[in-house]
Design a protein that fits this description.
- Helices cover about 40% and strands about 25% of the residues.
- By secondary structure, the chain is α/β, with parallel strands linked by helices.
- Strands 7, 8, 9, 10, 11, 12, 16, 17 and 19 form a nine-stranded mixed β-sheet that branches. A seven-stranded parallel β-sheet has the order 3-2-1-4-5-6-18, with helices on both faces.
- Helix 4 packs across helix 16 (about 445-460), helix 6 (about 145-155) crosses helix 7 and helix 16 crosses helix 17 (about 480-490).
- The termini are far apart.
Length: about 500
Amino acid sequence: MRCSHFYLSLPSNWKETMGKEFRLDRFREDLVAERKTDEQSDVFTEYMIAARKKKEKKQTIIIEQQKKMSRILMIGAGGVATVAAFKIAQNSDVFTEFMIASRRKEKCDAIVEAIREKGLLTPTPQHPSPIHIQTAQVDADDVEQLKALFNDFKPELVVNLALPYQDLTIMDACLACGCNYLDTANYEPKDEAHFEYSWQWAYRDRFREAGLTAILGCGFDPGVTSIFTAYAAKHHFDEIQYLDIVDCNAGDHHKAFATNFNPEINIREITQKGLYWENGQWVETEPLEIHKDLTYPNIGPRDSYLLHHEEIESLVINYPTIKRARFWMTFGQQYLKHLEVIQNIGMSRIDEVIYEAPLAEECDCNSQTTKRPDDQTTKTVKVKIVPLQFLKAVLPNPQDLGENYEGETSIGCRIRGLKDGKEHTYYIYNNCKHQDAYMETGMQGVSYTTGVPAMIGAMMFCKGLWRKPGVFNVEEFDPDPFMEQLNKQGLPWHEQFDIDIEL
């Protein structure tokens, strides 16, 4: 009632009166403002300038921090490194500064030139600020060389795409220089054909205390297969009970015998004894002893062999409900026959043998003169040779296979477990065509499927999505943003539910 009475008591021209009074009040305020002394005005102006400068400085610091987080140093210049470099260049909105380092700088320069030829270093409307790439020479076996390089370039993240022998020296250098770390394969000593995560897991406390992140096994297998498992556990299962990782390369490179990645590492891996997890313990088999036909999407049945593979080691720890975990890979009979011959004639040996060879004319090393049957003399030198390393030198370079490579790969996880008390099966996989990979990066599909995930892992770190102090396998991070990027970066994945997974 009081409100009604108040409005009824207003004069008939109250709106016009209120308008005039409002305008008078504003006029008085303007007069007061004009009467402010020059000194007061100067103080206000100085305050506004200081506030603006403070804001600009804060924005500059944020930009510099973001640039630092995106400052990447990659070690390695092989097929996987080439793919990773291409994909980093394609994502210049995330990566700002990039260096490629290897024992041979000219290989790094060749990668940059290949990227340049694809137009990725030229500004375009889609990529107005292409990435700046530097190259450098470094011996990844030498911690002091690594430290000098890291301290000079000051990377936020070191991406290790060198040999597994060099994991520990690179991790040591990262700790010494305050750099974060990412790799695609676990450590393996040169003098023993054996690999496991224990050597790198031993760095957990040191990385955690230093406030640094180390991301292990961010290729495809290990890598994407572990993230597939994490995704399945997060979205489709309450318990994963049976896990089979299946890797098929149905491509044809038209060579009598060639390996799809470093021949030395490849042959050492395949000739080891098989190993799988069942009922809480490891079960060892003879090399390639267990095999069976498995059917791969868009490929068909292929003979698949049980191998030891490192991601099983971490997955059974991080998913303790797993009752059995195995890894399978396909091999053709021609490949296996060549492998058998290589072993039988001793070319798969990793111990040193002494060989006396004719001395190259340009070599100044210590030599001795010997007399040949035709009475001619020649200088010779005794050298130590590791047969498998020598074999690597004469086999086709995996980087050169892409141009004539046909067919595709198919890699995924076949899982059986429980959801809401009911048993379900799940198959998640990616197929990658070798020619598609070659057209984009000049490399074949096996390099592509490892190099792309390495870049995505670096992206996850730079965006702050995979970033916490310590040493971690990839399945210990949130799989969702990584899975989203797989679809965007050239490795789309597919799912099949409640089918016969054949295992």
